[in-house]
Amino acid sequence: MNQINQFNNIKKNMSKQNIYTKSYLQAVTKCLLITALLIVASSCSNDEKQKVTKFNKLVMQDEFDTDGAPNSAIWSYNIGTGNNGWGNNELEYYTDSSDNVKVADGMLQITARKQAFMGSEYTSARLLSKGLFEQKYGRFEARIKMPSGQGIWPAFWLLGANSDTVTWPLCGEIDIMEYKGQEPTITHGTVHGPGYSGGSAITKSYDLINDRFDTDFHIFGIEWGKNYINFYVDDVLYNQITPDKVTGEWVYDHTFYMILNLAVGGSYVGPPNSATTFPQTMYVDYVRVYQ
Fold first, then answer.
1. CA separation (Å) from 65 to 98, 103, 111, 206, 281?
2. CB-hemisphere CA count at 13 Å for 274?
3. Phi and psi of 201, rounded to 5°?
4. Which of 83, 254, 269, 277 is deepest in the core (most CB within 10 A)?
5. Can you tell me the mean pLDDT for 123-151?
6. Residue 94 belongs to what H/E stretch?
């Protein structure tokens, strides 16, 4: 009988030990899970609220599917050198020639060439939707393959529709994509306004890891609403600018128009060098705007 009682006591103790072991393991697992969640939370960027508004009503699109000149219902041209190289010491003369801008093979092609014209050493093109398509707020995006090389400066950007009545940067400027040809893995998203323009603009870069922007197409976009502008590359949100992040007046509460251009030289990128080859072409697969 004593042996039987001893056996039962051993079983009982083993059962208790299993319960304690199970409880211990559950507690350890819970602690590890909480720790992992804290690590993940602490690794997230705290300087961006990651606010995303999905604009899904398509209100304008140019798929560039008709060969020839760009659609005149959407795009017009800046011609010439502007004031002081469009304010940036740029070296090109913008034209509306098919040598510099055309739609072919389902794409808009803006080409910079090394050719003397009207006192400039280079030619290129700059399209704008001013007076044709302008919008306040929404998602603006374009699918683009970049050119490359020192001194090559493509951009997809927005300018305040009141740019004729107020001086820049009071009208506001939103650079959806700005790129230096000598840095083919990096693009920049920027705003210019009163008190924060030029070298003092509010900006952030996006580095394309293990890839280059001149080897394939990528989607550059913003989602812009009241009191915020979100910047994306291929739907990755990498920057959010809000009124508390600018060092002057918030001037993004009125309609803006779009600009697509390919500059050569200028204070932002410097001049081309002996390694820069021409022609260089910026390929745009589409431009789409949503509300």
1. 16, 8, 18, 30, 18
2. 0
3. -65, 155
4. 269
5. 98
6. strand 92-94
